[in-house]
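tool=predict chain=A
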Amino acid sequence: MAEVFDINIRHLRGLLAIRDHGSITAAGSLVNLSQPALTQGIAKLERQFGYTLFERRSGGMVPTAMGRIVIERTEAALKHLAESAQGLTNVFNNPERLMTMTQLRAFLALADAGSFAEAARTIAISQTAVHRAVGDLEMVIGTELVERRGRAVWLNAAGKKLARGARLAVAEIQAALVDLALDSDSRSEMISFGALPLARPFIVPRAMADIAREVPKASFKVLEGNWSELVEPLRDGAIDMIVGALRPHEIADLYQRPLLDDMLVVAAGSQHPLASVERPTMDQLRSYPWIVAPANSPLRNHWEKFFAEGPRPETQIECGSVMIIGRLLTYANLLTLLSPDQVALQIRSGLLTQIGKPLEGSRRMVGIATRRSWRPTATQRLFLAKLEDAARERISNAALTGTWI
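tool=predict ok
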């Protein structure tokens, strides 16, 4: 099985042309390749993907089942490239048709590394080769893509737009390689996703553990952060999903799949004077200092809404780290608002306790956000299923215990 950057983009365009016209002769003229050259190109693609991609019939060439998989992924990849190049310049009408994988590989390495030297080291070629490939790509596009400041390099607006489309295009071709290697002992796939706080304690690790057991060759790349930190990597194709609290509104280019509801609880150390109070009053809750989330965060907004009527309690500490908050609660008579899953282990171990019932009006939907254009591979679909299984287990456990913990 080939590496994604070893695949020739013009040969991929030839696949679509053969699909549309049924012959190599007609397709060759559309991609500026002779019949022998395109014939050799298709044969090379078949070796790279490991399957026959077309059946040669008397009425023309017809894609095989595996060929259709490659063609569908190729069509999506080339669409990403075309959309990212659109409007960048008036020099060429369709600059994406002139791009090569060598150019895209060097450009994406440069975008990630921020310097020609580091990009060259990352992909194991010379700095001269990186300079030449990126320069050739800028000539194809007809505009500059990077700004050079000494040894450092930044993508300009055109570069950022093209980099996003290039990453998504490369991801589609990589997915085709993975799709066709399902029965191979050498199958290996990276599952890249972002994890928001609400998904980290249970749903994400449970699903990852299941995948690690069932698909030993699968690997994970996990980014942690808040929504604003992860949404652009999702759009760029650096990650394929975000797992955690969903946005309360629709997003044009993203699809949000709900998994379960989450409600906030008041948490405290097990030594807290209110630990034995089943239904604390608002005055009792106001009489102790609180740890609050950073300003303008969803958790902080829920806290401010909770104390909207009447005086607010003392806010002695502002902190967004659940680890630090958990330790603070065991040392002092402080209160805070948290998701039950975030402190479940501490509560089960007796270090922390939930005070009162979950807060009415604090319901949040936890789920998965993906690009609307994303089509998961078989392993990625299995991971989505494992996330759903983990969510159902979470709901079942809550129903059995009669609590949210």
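The first strand starts at residue 54 and ends at 57. The longest helix spans residues 378-401.
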